[in-house]
Amino acid sequence: MSSVAEHYYQTNQTTKQSAESSSQATEAVAPHQQLWQSIVSALQNADIQLTDLNTDLLAPIDQLHIGGRQATIKLLNDAGIQSQSCGIEIGSGLGGTARLIADQFDAEITAIDITQAFTFACDAINQQLGYQRITSICADACVPQVPAKSQDFVISQHTLMNIPDKQLALKTLADSLKDGGLLLLHEVFAGDNKEALKLPVPWASEQVHSHLPQFETLDQLLADAGFVAVRVEDVTEHALAWRTKHSQRESGSADKGHTQQKSPLNPQLIFGKRFVDMGKNLMANLADNKVRVVEAIYRLEKP
Q: Chain-centre distance of CA 213, in angstroms?
């Protein structure tokens, strides 16, 4: 498997299956365009035109990490990102976080994702909504994509956790940052309970595809790469509460939230029909202390 989350593999499988069961026109779409076509079709089936596309309609699918948009806003505010700065997002998916940063900080963002279907859809959304300062790149986060010492910050939400070669990834990210640059992390880590994870979860369908580290292990790798912790917060309890609420909505045992009621888009477009089970399993793993969630901010202080 490639370096970021295994769910990207599931995305490719899901979009392939979607194409096989859709219309003749959709079947003719190239594989990396099928996810975007699925989004367009879902909107059109709800009598929503692309000219009406907006952040609220995209909300159910463009920030799929635990805590959603509010978790991103908190992390950015805690970091004190400066206006008109330059940054990288790894594991950018459909670009929701990149667009949020561009909106709030007028920042220039390089959005990196290893899955072509995501970067194609991200580009299509950005073009439709008129974003000019986001560059979407399909690439491995372990491979340099920007000039050395050119970035003010890097943000990773549920991505660094599942890259097998974390040492190489951290070196690449450190090399991209200016001295004093910030690394913003919102990641899932292995918990104290060493029993096998309940699977599938959003980042892995099989145990072999899950590369969750202990927080202490990653913290040492960060120190070796020249990063110093500025702020570390265990948000597992909040993550469990958030995941429980959303699992209840997804299973139909609770009413949909305001955002979900307004949009025909949902995470099954990304993860397939197994998404409900993934959410329930993640909730169980959080409750059983098999995984924990940490938000952290590190500063690069290389000698």
A: 18
